Amino acid sequence: MKKLPIYKKIISSVFLILHFFIASSFASVYPEEKQSEKTLVRVGWTELSGYINKNEYENPGGYVKKYLDIIAQYTDWEYEFVKGSFSDILTWLNEGSIDLVPCLNITPERLTYIDYPDYEMAYSNSTLFTRKESHLSKQNLESLQNIKIAAISPNDENVQNMYVFAKENGLHLNIVYYNTTSEVEKAVLLAEVDAGIVANHHASKQTKIILTFAPQKLYFGCTNSKPFLAEALNKAYEQILIVNPIFTKDFMKRYIPLSLAIEFSLSEKEAELIKNTKPLKIAINNLWQPYEFYDTRTKRFYGYTIELFNEISHLTGLKFEYVYERKNKVATADIFGTYGNNIEAAHEMGYKITEPYLKLPLVAIYKNKLDIRNNKTAIIEDTTFNYEDFDIFDFWEPVYFKDQEACLNAVRKGSANQTIMNTFTANYMLEQKRKYYRLKIDILPETYFELCALVKEDLDPAIFAVLNRSIAYVSETYSNYFIIKSTFKANEITLSSILNQMPFDVLFVFAVLISISFITILLNWSKNSKRKIIELKNEQLQDALISEQRANEAKSQFTSRISHEIRSPLNAVIGYISIAQTHEKTNQQTNNYLHKAELAAKQLLSLLNDVLDMSSIASGKIHLVKSSFNIQEVIHTMGTLFYNQAKMADLTFTVNAEKIENEILIGDKLRLTQILTNLLSNAIKFTPRGGNITFTISEEAKTKESTHMLFSVKDTGYGISPDFLEKVFNPYEQQNSDNYAKHNGSGLGLSITKNLVTLMSGAITVESEENKGSTFTVTIPFDITYDCKRKLNSRYKSIFILISSDNLRYRKDLEELFKHCGLNIEYYSLEKTFSLLNDTTTAPFQLLILDTDEFTETELAIVKKIKESPLGKYILIVVSSYEQSIDESEGFKAGVSRFISKPLFQSTVFNLLLELFGPYTPSTIQEHLLHTFPGKKILLVEDNEMNIEIASELLKKYEVEIIIAKNGQEALELFMNDKKSEIDLVFMDIQMPIMDGYEATRKIRSSQKSNAKTIPIVAMTANAFAEDISLSLASGMNNHLSKPINVAELFEVLTTYLQ
């Protein structure tokens, strides 16, 4: 047989010896027993929060149980667990009835009966904790004096540590004992004690930590009656630590994640120091993406570092200011948030370095084949990473580049074989650009990069200590969250980022498939296009029709609802004014104010109707309502409103009425009011202070059945440019001018006015010159029902009137109006009137008319002189503007018989003559009150208390009996129970709870009562549109009264149905 060479024999011998050594080291620690047999170890345990927790079967679980399971793999132990209090298990261990107790620290006393292994099995801190709301605080140690503390045993090392701390700080303690840490925590929460002392308590929503102190190592304690137990533990530890030198620390992080993260707190001195510390500048650069970077687009800082220091600021109160630094080696900032764990480089820059807060695996990025030892490796020239700390970089050839992108480009182009980066930066860079898609990536085993922060050496050491402590706390608590948040921000998913990840061949195939699909779809679409287009258009038209119908229904419902809601309070305003006018004690001046308030309220109601019909103009569904109205009321309402507005704007406002014979017109009063309001509002708005506005109304072409009214609004305002004049009536158009920019409107007013005039078969024109003013002229036809001329009392022909006025034009208008009534007229200027004051030969006058623009102290003096002269015996009438400078009562005291506002109409003059010289019953509220209806019974159906009060107050004046029903159901029951048919009239509201007015009316009409078909039912509601009136009549009602209640219309209804 061939002999083996000598060197092969030596090698065989070495392998044989190694095999024997390894086998012996893994053999059982009990050589006297067979290897297949296991040793029973009795373990004493008690609940210890974080370390030993009982499971649902009352067996031990948690960190200690897992740790013992690892030990058993090296010792062939099996366990029997014996539960007891902390004192009990120490006694049992001393007696030898149990073998092992976990989580013990070393004390001289315990060394007399306990054997300890050489290696610790956990770490611990003594923690004093209390309830969240407790006043106890580390910052105020005096608050701990004489407090009652719960603990698990006098022998517990945490109790001993507490006594040491108390002695050092002069505290007296009262400690009571419980069996387990769970009972200690329960006692604290139930306020049986002030605080609890245990190892490693973790603050919760219900508790807070006061003190964390006395860090210590914990060991397995073995009974000294079995010395082989500690020896076996030592051998097991040695085998474990060969595999992982920091096994216990890693195991604690795995099973007790918060074991090293205590609750953060500051001392009083630290808090005061932070309060007086200026904001610290933190340098951020883009070399550390995605952990920190400056986004030039948003001008903001992002990344892990930003989140870390923001949380530290929130935790400590320190203020930070982020600044962008292009390089790491420019020592201008107080802090560098991200830096490699290189203490030498940090000291060279003049900085201290914190403990690492992040540990990053390293990867190699390469194109063809990874070979660190024999090829060039691209790295950043300013890197702070200590490559010499790792064996893999002992033999390599580094090539330096300015940043990560330059390193990757070098690998892509072949200038370097590979580059080294941390995992997250590598993934971030490779996902940004398509050009890197051919590069490969491999993890480098046993290599990692630790991130720290740099703090300037000249900062207070206490600030450095706070930063170091808070960085450790925040990174331990929030690290994973910050990484996810920062990487998601840096790697936002976009279409571009998705396409960047696709290889070119995949993109090509994808593009071809899309092209083929598009062509196919296009061909199919072309084939069926005509049919589908027709079907689609039909469907769209149908859908549009349905949508429009729904929109119109919703709009109508909203319009009706908002009209009703706004009219209710407005009804109160006008109703209470009407009631006030009926009281006998109100003087003429108060009546005048009430009259003006009533005009303003009615104008507000008119404007409300205007707003609610705006949408109807756009949809072409606006309803024009033809009804008779007095043009005099419209003009006086406009005059009263806009005279005051003009006066406030320092403008002269004049109203002229010329040759108006037909005062009662048939047409849409609301729309006419809206047109005039728009024109007059614009005139006041766009006329500078000191300007003039003239509002003129005249009657033009007339026939037996109709007449054309001309309304003119002339101002001396800013005027309209020739270019804009062509589009002045277009919607949303506004003239670009500084004068017009001050009045920011919707640009709809004149467009609405134009549409309304057109709907009323009228015409509107405008003449304007820039900086001189504008004139808007509107002509609208109206129907008339009768000749408004009245038969005159023959005795008026013997009446002589003196008209005193300096306004020649208006003096002629007055002369025309009075002559039309057959009176004898003479007119003088004020100067000539003064000359007649002491002339006893002056012809006898029955009436003296004094015309003035405004009744002031001057006019009051003239009146007094007239009344002291021979002319003083005549009736004196003052014709003036809408507002007097002095109280009219002063004029009445001086001798004025009447004040009449301009402009005068024929009916105004006629009513004045009837009042002064003949039997006259004025057409006002007082006339209505002369008629009563005693014995009549009215059912008032209304749910609003305020409306009930107003209607009742108005109806009581007519001496009727009123029955109230709060809804349609009550009204129906009252009507059906009216056996003798004593109810003469029903006023029915519409919108009411339980049963509305329409349904109540229909049920009354359809009932079997004898008067069900004949009893008058009149709607009294805030629903005031034309369609609302139609609905009322359609439901069976006889008439319709709109709120606010018009007293004259109410009187007309009562007269119609009760007389």
Quaternary form: single chain
Structural class computed from helices and strand pairing? alpha/beta
Helix count equals 33
The number of domains is: 7
CATH class placement of the largest domain:
Alpha Beta
Total strand count, please? 39
CATH topology category name of the largest domain: D-Maltodextrin-Binding Protein, domain 2
| Radius of gyration computed on alpha carbons | 51 Å
Unreliable residue stretches: 1-35, 787-794, 919-927
Strand composition percent: 15-25%
The major beta sheet can be summarized as: 9 strands, mixed
Morphology call: elongated
Distance between the termini: 152 Å
Helix content: 40-55%
**Arithmetic mean pLDDT:** 79
CATH architecture of the largest domain: 3-Layer(aba) Sandwich
Describe this structure in words.
With 1059 residues, this protein is an alpha/beta fold. The chain has seven domains: 39-255, 3-Layer(aba) Sandwich (D-Maltodextrin-Binding Protein, domain 2); 267-334 and 459-492, 3-Layer(aba) Sandwich (D-Maltodextrin-Binding Protein, domain 2), CATH 3.40.190; 359-451, 3-Layer(aba) Sandwich (D-Maltodextrin-Binding Protein, domain 2), CATH 3.40.190.10; 495-620, Helix Hairpins; 622-784, Heat Shock Protein 90, CATH 3.30.565.10; 794-917, Rossmann fold (3-Layer(aba) Sandwich), CATH 3.40.50; 937-1058, Response regulator (Rossmann fold, 3-Layer(aba) Sandwich), CATH 3.40.50. The chain contains 33 helices and 39 strands. Strands 12, 15, 16, 17, 18, 19, 20, 21 and 22 form a nine-stranded mixed beta sheet that branches. Strands 5, 6, 7, 8, 9, 10 and 11 form a seven-stranded mixed beta sheet that branches. A five-stranded mixed beta sheet has the order 24-26-27-29-28, with helices on one face. The longest helix has 79 residues, at 504-582. It starts with 5 loop residues before the first helix and ends with a helix. The model is unreliable at 1-35, 787-794 and 919-927 (pLDDT under 50).
